[in-house]
Amino acid sequence: MTGDLFASGGETGRLMAALDWARTDLGPVSGWPQSLRAAVRIVLSSRYPMLLLWGSDFTQLYNDAYSALIGDRHPAALGLDVRITLAEGWDVLRPLISEAMATGVASWVPALQLLLNRSGYREEAYFSVSHAPARDDDGVTVGVLTVCSEVTEQVVGERRLRLLRELSAGGALDDVDRTCAGLCDAIGEHPLDVPFAAVYLREGGVLRRVATTGAAARALPAEIHDHDHWGVRAAAATGEVQVTDVGGRITVPAGPWNDPVRVTLAQPLPAAGPGEPVGVLLAGVSPSRALDDTYRSFFALLGQQVAVAVRTARAYQEERARAAALAELDRAKTDFFTNVSHEFRTPLTLMLGPLADALADPAAPLDPVQRQRVDTAWRNAGRMLSLVNDLLTFSSVEAGRARANPAGLDLPAVTRELTAVFRAAVERAGLRLVVDCPPLPRPVAVDPEHWERIVTNLLSNALKFTFVGEIRVALHAGPDAVRLTVGDTGIGVDPAELPHLFDRFHRVRGARSRSHEGTGIGLALVRELTRLQGGDVTVDSTPGKGTTFTVTLPWAAVDATDVPRTADPQPLAAARAAVREATGWLDDHNVPGTASGTAAGAGTAAGAGTATESAGGGSEVRILVADDNADMRAYLTRLLTAQGWSVRTAGDGEAALRSIRADLPDLLITDVMMPRSDGFTLVRALRREEATRRLPILMLSARAGEDSGVEGFDAGADDYIVKPFTAADLIARVRTGLRLAGLSTAAGPRPAAPAGSATAPPGPAAAPDRNEATDRVAAAGTAGATAPAGAAGPPAAVTARTADAPGTGHPGAAGSETEVAGRAVVIPGQAASAPAPPAAGSGGGLPDADVVWIYPLAPSAAGAVRNDLRAVLPEDTIDPDLLYDLQIAATEAVNNAVEHAQQPSRPHIEVRLRARDGLIRIEVQDFGTWRARPPARDRGRGAVLMNAFGDVQVTPSSTGTLVTIERRWRA
User: Fold this and answer.
1) CA 913 to CA 763: how far, in whole Å?
2) Where do the domains of the chain lie, and which CATH numbers do they carry?
3) Where residue 322 falls among pLDDT bands split at 50, 70, 90?
4) pLDDT confidence of residue 747
């Protein structure tokens, strides 16, 4: 029994199995309660760091992942009181653990600072920690289950990057001593990384101390001549870093716990070109952090930035060499940004990689709470990477390495999509966004990524400096060129500043803006990227009235006649990152209520209290869009009707509720913030009514943040999208909601009821019974979300792959040779054709069948399998409801094979249908390894659907995964 309990725990499990637990407070394993055994199995089977504290003595049980976090405290900590193992951090941990045990409510701290002595010194460490109560067999809280991950590198890295950014933004003064004093003041704001510092500059044969920070720095020598005990002279002479033991020369308490500084580092300040360093930065090393490669790289970047500032100040003082010095400064700044970007790519990679692995690991799937936390960290690390990529792009342009890769685009459509990404942020700021991008006479050849950066930078700039009025985006063709204009009614630019507006790193001093952050390279990047397309950009501005940028692309440079046409791209990471940054500017004082009323009022007038129809080709799928913004309603209507869906709209929550009560749609898309009745109120009202409580609801909101999403789900929404969103994301979410209701167009129209059955209501209500399909899903909901399809293999997930599927009409002839030949149909033991169905209306019953189809590993397989099932199982031989259910289940299985099969050994999927003695079995076989989907809100609805419409078994193996669906048929 002991071996079975610890079998899944790896090395730590083996140590636990060998431990004499009778000598611990837990007693022998044979006497452990079932609740403790279950908790131990959970801990040992997880690849995420987990710690179980059990009993009044807080006895520790943990897994391999956690053992790595406590260093040399392992394995002695097993079975030991945590107050002994983590004595130095107990003052911090005790209130969190006590609260979880006293209240029975879990807690979470995203970056908990702990003092650990795990590597021979008192270490500053940070952890993302959750404490949840652990209960015994009687439900009494007797311990705590701790789930944690170390985020020390992330916290410390962000802190150091903030210091470097502050130094870079400090600007240059015209006096060397004052410049160094300002730098030291900035460094002094970060004592955890630099306990003290002093700047020594070379003056003749002497190194003079010109600025200090920290009390201990004043005890350092004012001048250094021939030699010293601090390594300053050696660093200045050799250009190499010198690390020195402090010894007993000074006593400096530092770090979070005032441990004495033991080591100093002398960092050379490099000259602009070849030659001796201009000076040395002498800094104390934190006693709470190891002087590893990352710490050394930070000091190197710190020294480089100080050197840049010193050289800049000297350039102002040395009037005769001013021009050359400024040129070197520009190069040094570019090099600095490049170095920062490259240096931080390593820790970012080490954050993004493990986080993505944790999200996509099918062997150790995260629970919903942990998945949300890891996904949050993953997305924010991606935002940091976006900034790094921007800096590298500019460095590449500056160095002349950037090249345009033109492609033939529908430029107006691409531009409209990019502006749509910004719409939520612009309207949240109380501004109007006016877009005028009519079709051009022919495609334009530009680099899609460059065009995205050009448009997003101009829109970001307009939003940053506009507080009242509107932002206008227009794209028109002239006889000689295509012109994009981005205008605003913002603060305008002083005429004296206009010639420098496109200079790199130029900032208009004293200008009112929503944020003073920024690298100063946005407009310079616009000009350089425009020139790479063969065009140019100009600006016209009037102070107090606004600014207009005009991007001109001559037809001679962007003619797409000989350039291959490409699919218009969806907005890329640069646009999303720009909007995320702009959203951060829009706090309360930057969003005047008087300005927001105009846009909101227009939307309300257009739709409040009414419902308007937008035909979607007579589709059975009907969607209601509730949003107070007329432009957003039009945008959503265009996206949805393009999918063949019927759309009607409402301008507020009250109008939407009246419309739904009058005519129940198949899915509701509602905004959160609306007049008269907001989205949360609407959703709660719908969930209270029996007729509407199962209606799929998708909420849209400009209110970013986890809390807003939680509020939406708590209100009863099925899904929640934060603006801005991509068209592809919206369509995929809508398809998921429709599948959940049994109404997706990807599953095909539900067959009409057989003759003699109850008469169905006319019109759209004759579509498949929503409540019946939803009841089946609900019946399987609890089990389907946790066990059947997911127990034997990775969870299936609803995807948008069926967008490429062909239509769902009947094939010409059941099992025709022409149709099946392209898919290499094989029928074991029979002729290569499907069984012929009985004559229509004969009621001859279900024929026996054994058919194998081979489909390419592509989205089109979903549509093909629906058609083939209908051909082999025609409606006059099988109950239409059963055929419909089998089509949905098989489609989901095929979709999951296409979506999740990774690195397949064969480029196809095999689907086998067996019908014999009233039992129908469908087998879907792929030949790849499974891949879990990253999004945090993937709920495994595909698995729920398959289980609702058939008995499902998932059998994974090293060569692929087999999904088996069975249904009993009765004549």
Assistant:
1) 34
2) 2-150 (3.30.450.20), 171-317 (3.30.450.40), 326-402 (1.10.287), 407-590 (3.30.565.10), 593-725 (3.40.50.2300), 764-968 (3.30.565.10)
3) low
4) 35
